[in-house]
Write a structure and sequence with these properties.
Blueprint (H helix, E strand, L loop, with lengths): L9 H34 L15 E3 L10 E2 L3 E3 L11 E7 L2 E6 H7 L1 E6 L2 E8 L4 E6 L1 E2 L2 E2 L2 E8 L2 E6 L5 E3 L4 E4 L12 E5 H7 L4 E3 L39 E5 L2 E4 H7 L2 E3 L2 E6 L19 E8 L4 E4 L3 E4 H7 L4 E3 L2
Length: 339
């Protein structure tokens, strides 16, 4: 007796086709990666591209090359109380080390992204990524040496990849972790900082210093090329899965693997988390709105602090501010609160 043959499962054919296509694409993918590495090696001849902690295919090239976005080294500073060429609510990255405070305006960092500086005897790296809207400050000590950092011209998850001059290893700026080269796996020590307005920095540190224009004749300082970016829907960012009520370009503040949207803090008030105060205060221009930064819409300031009973005062707590999609990219299991 003949037995009826079972019809092949449709999914079987789909899986078979995908497998065949995958095998066909493997050589071309490998060739593309090798081509990338060959191009990188011309710019970074001392880098060891065989050592890496991430998938090479995640690294993106947007047209810039090594230090096309020129990093700054030990810029000049002026007294914040006498500064006149910047709007009162323009954003700055502020940091305090050993009771010395400095502010680094985004009107300059949007064009340079990195500042290699020294504050109160501590070598520090001030960094800002316009595409993820995230500021990070790190100590520049690497293997007991002071490192000098530059810009690779590449990104991963749209965040700037930087390099150290000695080994030309590549570092993920967002995390402070080396992802390619001899330093792979090493981490930079973060320093608590704020992304706040000039006026708030001035009120907190009347004797503070603010970075002066690197060169007025070179770049259009005071303007931004990221016009209306903050209010766009985020096309191309669908891979970063977010709740329906959160836009990829929504601003968030994160402490570890937990984050809160600015909108939530603005509309429902401050949050207390394990003794840490997280609050929103109005009065900071966006660099992702109008061409002239001082006309940018008000996105507000974030304050994150803990009360220190020994000093009887509030002290800053390490945190990060950025776009929602970037938090999801680097914290895939993190919790993002919007309510």
């Amino acid at each position: 007796m003949l037995r009826a043959r079972k019809a092949p499962n449709f999914l079987f054919f789909v899986e078979l086709i995908v497998a065949i296509l995958g095998l066909c694409l493997l050589p071309s993918l490998a060739e593309a990666i090798n081509d990338n590495i060959q191009h990188w090696a011309k710019e970074f001849p001392y880098a060891d591209f065989t050592l890496r902690a991430v998938n090479i295919s995640e690294i993106r090239y947007h047209g810039a090359t090594r230090d096309t976005v020129r990093p700054l080294v030990k810029p000049s500073f002026g007294d914040v109380k006498t500064i006149r060429n910047i709007g009162e609510i323009e954003p700055v990255i502020s940091v305090e080390v050993n009771h010395k405070a400095r502010a680094y305006p985004l009107r300059y960092l949007v064009w340079h992204e990195l500042v290699n500086d020294e504050l109160a005897g501590v070598p520090i790296l001030i960094s800002y990524s316009p595409l993820t809207n995230s500021a990070r400050v790190y100590e520049r000590w690497v293997s007991k040496k002071v490192a000098l950092f530059g810009n690779t011209g590449r990104t991963r998850h749209f965040d700037t990849i930087i390099y150290d001059a000695e080994t030309q290893s590549w570092w993920q700026r967002y995390t402070g972790r080396a992802i390619l080269g001899l330093r792979t796996g090493s981490r930079l020590r973060p320093i608590a900082s704020r992304l706040e307005s000039v006026s708030r920095f001035k009120n907190r540190y009347s004797d503070g210093q603010i970075m002066l224009p690197p060169n007025l004749d070179v770049l259009p300082y005071g303007t931004t090329p990221y016009i209306r970016m903050g209010s766009s829907v985020g096309n191309g960012l669908e891979a970063y899965i977010l709740a329906d009520d959160i836009n990829p370009y929504d601003r968030i503040v994160a402490i570890g693997d937990e984050a809160w949207t600015f909108k939530r803090l603005r509309e429902k008030g401050a949050v207390m988390r394990d003794g840490i105060f997280i609050g929103w205060i109005p009065g900071q221009n966006s660099i992702h709105d109008t061409k002239w930064i001082h006309f940018g819409r008000d996105v507000g300031n974030i304050v994150v602090g803990r009360f220190d009973t020994k000093s009887d005062e509030w002290v800053d707590v390490l945190h990060s501010v950025g776009f929602a999609f970037a938090f999801r990219a680097f914290n895939p299991s993190g919790v993002l609160y919007s309510w």
